[in-house]
Amino acid sequence: MKFNDLNMKKLFYFLSLGIIAGMMMMTSCKDDPDEQLTAQQEQAQLLAGIWTQQNTTQLPQGVDPTILDQLTFTFGIDANKNPSSFSSGGAPDFFTTSGSSEWAFSGSSTTSLILSEVSPVSELTINSLTATSLTVSFSLTSGGVRVASLDGNYTVEMTK
């Protein structure tokens, strides 16, 4: 059987269709660069990483001003850019974490954080946040004798 012009045109047409369909399928598999993130996902992306204390701007009267000098926070996010793991270091009287410690936003807020499996402080308030600086506030109400002298409000400036 010989190929004539009509058969060649049909073959070319079907091959072209196959190539176009394949290209469309390959482009549809790519991540959507225009994916719209929620305000919480955007905030979580900014928070993700390791933060170290730079300055304590508010602390209760009589508390050693260097008590939080070694404070670090590590905020993790999952593949969907949602809050996940949390750890801290350098301030065990304020933040003692377990292996399963996590963080989340409180309700629809982007500034109020809930820390799970963390004690005695289990809430943080974000006062300001950029890609490299974070200012948080928290309150310590221990009720315990050992750290009762630390009870009060704190504001800490951190950098990434």
Radius of gyration: 27 Å
Total number of domains: 2
Strands ordered across the widest β-sheet? 3-2-1-8-7-6-5-4
Work out the number of β strands.
8
In the CATH hierarchy, what is the class of the largest domain? Mainly Beta
Poorly predicted runs are: none
Strand content: 35-45%
Order of helices and strands: HHEEEEEEEE
- Major β-sheet profile: 8 strands, antiparallel
Structural class: alpha+beta
Q: What is the count of helical runs?
A: 2
Tell me the CATH architecture of the largest domain. Beta Barrel
The separation of the N and C termini measures: 72 Å
Shape: rod-shaped
Residue-averaged pLDDT: 86
What does this structure look like?
- The chain is α+β, with helices and mostly antiparallel strands.
- The chain folds into two domains: 30 residues; 121 residues, Lipocalin, CATH 2.40.128.
- The chain contains two helices and eight strands; from the N terminus they run ααββββββββ.
- It has an eight-stranded antiparallel beta sheet.
- The longest helix is centred in the N-terminal third of the chain and has 24 residues.
- The model has no long low-confidence stretch (mean pLDDT 86).
